[in-house]
């Protein structure tokens, strides 16, 4: 065998590799077809001036990208995304954590709250959008009605460029806070009960237990939840599309809604692709930087 | 649905990477930790991409399904696919009847399959179908900018020869044919409805306050004042949908300066900053400040019927919109419908523009053709079937005003009759701006105008933005 002896272990390893390759092929193909290829294609399309339907595309190199850099609407949209991102993290996570803590301390008798609080997450975004458009309607909506009980006039939240974005953020928080609640509840169950018992035996109050023991143990979950929320906010689309369509003016325009409008409503597929590419780069950058910062803090 | 699903998918990825990341932490292996961090980064990148492609090519997946359902664009040899938006009652009955008539009487050997699609997603679906080579053989559109775009991209064939040989040539209103024409060729068959921008008003309310139909814009403003004094909102407008506000703008601009400034601006010979446009915007802001529109006008949604609700509650007196509202009122409430009167937008006293010019669509639905030879002839025959005498009777019975000559005699409804008369006596009928203009310009117009209504932009700023979009469009076009 000329020194080419193969040990049993090696055969085993080779077989494992073969099987692994076999099992991974389907998902690899799926990823390639539905994720990798479209991304590449998006970047290619972004170098053309194309209306999305005609067979003739005109190659314009980085023309779309130049326009994108100078496009104030895109940067307004990006800013709106960042506002949503910051507010989402600042509002959803603390509330989610508070609810989860409450449920964790309360045990089984609070199951009813668990169910009720989880409901918003079960509804489709479009339904929520419609629901809140009615609730916030200027004439006869919930907010206006309450305001008129106290002698105030009608309040126009969604039609006013100053309040529209905040209003949408509030609705988003209503929808997604339960998600973080569940997320943190799961994190709580990862903390062994022994830890709690030990702390109690050592005389820790519930408050001390939470701040000194549970919270530090939850930090990794909080970090990943923050990243989750960040990415979700940066690529957000549905509620805004249903509730305001990006308006009034550009006050609630997001990168994703802007991309959709450019690609499909105004027959500007090439430019729409450039926006998608811009989103891709911006979101990747923001999340990679954030992850880097979070991880560094941990090592220190 | 798609978006929601994708959302979950992301969550899933992050979720798992997050928790395994945590486990690694506990084990404390530094190398492992690094690798995990890198893995997390990679999975982050992967899901980011998923989000983009979702938007970038999400539609494609959908269209594939549609294509196969409809046996594709050029599927069966003897089958003609016909896309339209007739998913609901009246329109559905009309198309079904026309298609059946064609299928049972034709000698061409072809059969037409009608594939109705929800209005909301129709334009997007059509775009996706065209870009993926699944364009239907015949499809209806609203004419204007998007139709010109389809034509320029080669998805609509000129039908001059067929049209000139056909009886519908003498049947259709001239204005209808004009709206189906592009670069001196006829590309579509209009069939469904004549709709003009005009003012619907509550007759009882007008009687109560001794008001009569206005002759001039000043009269109209007096009416508004009277209504306002009596605690009634003069105009029911839901401008969350943006195009609804454009009705007011188009009407004012046409009365102030006629159609010439608009036509010149579109041709690149004039500007959208022409004074008739700016003045129209200024007038609207004056009206907003005077409280002629409902509170929160920019957040009310036309699609949710929030404008007509104000009319039904009788908290608003007038509504300026397309005359399809006649049938909306009639379907919603017979009783309320009895109270409704209509007048075309009144003349501007300071202007010598022809006040019989109208804004509107003469046909509403325009059938275009993406096939050739015998197939085109057969498809055209099917389009003709939409305009047979029997069909015209049927449509008028259903409350439509098909764009054919002499239809005023068939229309019995008094309001609809007035509208047809206005259409007949109009020297020109301009298609809605947002439909007629190139889509990018239309968007600039609608977005700017909404801000004019919200008082966050001056009319001049809005018009400059519109002109800039037009300049960009023309620059690309000539390149």
What keyword list fits this structure?
heterodimer, A: 300 residues, mainly alpha, MetI-like fold, 2 domains, two-stranded antiparallel ribbon, flat, B: 479 residues, alpha/beta, D-Maltodextrin-Binding Protein, domain 2, six-stranded mixed β-sheet, five-stranded mixed β-sheet, 23 helices, 57% helix, globular, disordered N terminus
Total number of strands of chain B = 13
CATH-assigned fold name of the largest domain in chain A = MetI-like fold
* Proportion of beta-strand residues of chain A: under 5%
Q: Approximately how much beta-strand content do the residues of chain B carry?
A: 5-15%
Estimate nothing, just give the exact number of structural domains of chain A. 2
Describe the structure.
The complex is a heterodimer of chains A (300) and B (479). Chain A is an all-alpha fold and 300 residues long. In chain A, 75% of the residues lie in helices and 1% in strands. Chain B is built from 23 helices and 13 strands. In chain B, the strands form 3 sheets. In chain B, strands 7, 8, 9, 10, 11 and 13 form a 6-stranded mixed β-sheet that branches. In chain B, strands 2-1-3-12-6 form a 5-stranded mixed β-sheet. Chain B has a two-stranded antiparallel ribbon with strand order 4-5. In chain B, helix 11 crosses helix 13 and helix 22 packs antiparallel against helix 23 (459-478). Chain B is globular and about 65 Å long. Classes of the chains: A mainly alpha (300), B alpha/beta (479). At the A-B interface, helix 1, helix 5, helix 7, helix 9 and helix 11 of A face helix 1, helix 2, helix 4, helix 5 and helix 22 of B.
Give the secondary structure arrangement, pairings included.
The complex is a heterodimer of chains A (300) and B (479).
Chain A: H1 8-45, E1 48-49, E2 58-59, H2 63-70, H3 72-106, H4 111-122, H5 125-135, H6 142-149, H7 164-190, H8 193-201, H9 206-234, H10 238-243, H11 255-265, H12 269-299
Antiparallel strand pairs in A: 1-2
Chain B: H1 2-27, H2 30-69, E1 79-84, H3 89-105, E2 111-116, H4 119-131, E3 138-141, H5 144-152, H6 160-165, H7 168-171, H8 174-179, E4 181-182, E5 185-186, E6 188-190, E7 193-202, H9 203-208, H10 217-229, E8 233-235, H11 243-257, H12 260-267, H13 275-289, H14 306-312, E9 316-322, H15 325-332, H16 334-337, E10 340-344, E11 358-363, E12 366-369, H17 373-385, H18 389-397, H19 407-410, H20 414-425, E13 429-430, H21 433-436, H22 439-453, H23 459-478
């Amino acid at each position: 065998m000329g020194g080419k002896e193969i040990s049993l272990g090696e055969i085993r390893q080779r077989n494992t590799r073969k099987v692994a390759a076999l099992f991974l092929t389907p998902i690899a193909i799926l990823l390639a077809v539905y994720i990798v290829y479209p991304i590449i294609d998006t970047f290619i399309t972004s170098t053309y001036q194309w209306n999305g339907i005609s067979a003739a595309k005109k190659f314009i190199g980085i023309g779309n990208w130049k326009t994108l850099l100078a496009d104030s609407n895109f940067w307004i949209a990006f800013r709106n995304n960042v506002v949503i991102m910051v507010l989402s993290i600042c509002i959803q996570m603390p509330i989610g954590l508070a609810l989860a803590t409450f449920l964790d301390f309360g045990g089984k008798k609070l199951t009813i709250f668990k169910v009720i609080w989880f409901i918003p997450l079960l509804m489709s975004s479009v339904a929520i959008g419609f629901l809140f458009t009615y609730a916030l309607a200027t004439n006869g909506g919930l907010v206006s009605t309450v305001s008129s009980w106290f002698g105030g006039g009608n309040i126009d939240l969604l039609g006013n460029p100053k309040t529209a974005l905040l209003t949408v953020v509030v609705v988003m928080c209503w929808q997604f806070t339960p998600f973080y609640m569940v997320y943190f509840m799961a994190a709580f169950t990862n903390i062994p009960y022994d830890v709690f018992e030990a702390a109690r035996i050592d005389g820790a109050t519930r408050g001390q237990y939470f701040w000194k023991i549970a919270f530090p143990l939850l930090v990794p979950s909080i970090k990943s939840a923050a990243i989750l929320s960040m990415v979700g906010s940066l690529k957000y689309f549905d509620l805004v599309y249903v509730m305001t369509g990006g308006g009034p003016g550009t006050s609630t325009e997001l990168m994703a809604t802007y991309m959709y409008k450019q690609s499909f409503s105004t027959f500007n597929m090439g430019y729409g692709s450039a926006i998608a590419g811009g989103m891709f780069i911006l979101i990747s950058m923001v999340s990679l930087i954030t992850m880097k910062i979070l991880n560094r803090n941990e090592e220190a | 649905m798609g978006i929601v699903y994708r959302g979950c998918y992301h969550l899933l990825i992050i979720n798992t990477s997050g928790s395994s990341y945590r486990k690694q932490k506990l084990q404390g292996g530094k190398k492992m930790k690094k690798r995990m961090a890198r893995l997390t980064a990679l999975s982050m990148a992967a899901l980011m991409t998923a989000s983009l492609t979702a938007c970038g090519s999400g539609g494609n997946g959908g269209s594939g399904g549609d294509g196969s359902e409809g046996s594709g664009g050029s599927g069966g040899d003897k089958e003609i696919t016909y896309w339209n938006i007739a998913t609901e009652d009246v329109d559905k009955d009309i198309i079904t009847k026309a298609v059946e008539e064609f299928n049972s009487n034709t000698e061409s050997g072809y059969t037409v399959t009608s594939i109705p699609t929800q209005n909301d997603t129709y334009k997007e679906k059509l775009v996706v179908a065209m870009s993926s080579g699944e364009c239907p053989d015949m499809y209806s559109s609203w004419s204007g900018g998007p139709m010109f775009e389809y034509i320029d991209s080669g998805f609509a064939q000129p039908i001059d020869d067929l049209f000139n040989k056909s009886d519908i040539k003498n049947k259709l209103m001239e204005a209808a044919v004009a709206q189906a024409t592009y670069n001196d060729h006829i590309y579509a068959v209009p069939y469904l409805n004549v709709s003009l921008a005009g003012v619907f008003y509550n007759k009882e309310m007008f009687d109560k306050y001794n008001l009569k139909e206005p002759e001039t814009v000043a009269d109209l403003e007096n009416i508004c004042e009277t209504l306002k004094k009596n605690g009634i909102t003069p105009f029911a407008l839901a401008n969350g949908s943006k195009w609804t506000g454009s009705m007011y703008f188009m009407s004012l601009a046409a009365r102030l300066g006629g159609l010439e400034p608009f036509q010149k601006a579109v041709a690149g010979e004039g500007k959208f900053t022409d004074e008739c446009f700016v003045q129209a915007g200024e007038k609207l802001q004056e009206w907003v400040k005077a409280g002629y529109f409902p509170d929160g006008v920019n957040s009310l949604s036309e699609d949710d019927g929030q404008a007509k609700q104000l009319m039904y509650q009788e908290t608003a007196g007038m509504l300026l919109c397309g005359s399809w509202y006649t049938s909306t009122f009639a379907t919603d409430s017979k009783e309320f419908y009895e109270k409704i009167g209509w007048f075309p937008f009144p003349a501007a006293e300071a202007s010598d523009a022809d006040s019989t010019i109208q804004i509107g669509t003469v046909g509403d639905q325009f059938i275009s053709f993406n096939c050739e030879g015998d197939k085109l002839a057969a498809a055209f025959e099917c389009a003709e079937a939409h305009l047979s005498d029997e069909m015209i009777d049927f449509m008028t019975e259903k409350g439509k005003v098909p764009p054919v000559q002499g239809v005023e005699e068939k229309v019995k409804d008094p309001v609809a009759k007035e509208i047809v008369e206005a259409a007949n006596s109009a020297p020109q009928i301009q298609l809605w701006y947002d439909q007629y203009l190139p889509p990018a310009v239309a968007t600039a117009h609608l977005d700017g105008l909404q801000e004019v209504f919200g008082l966050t932009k001056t009319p001049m700023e809005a018009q400059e933005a519109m002109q800039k979009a037009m300049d960009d469009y023309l620059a690309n076009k000539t390149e």
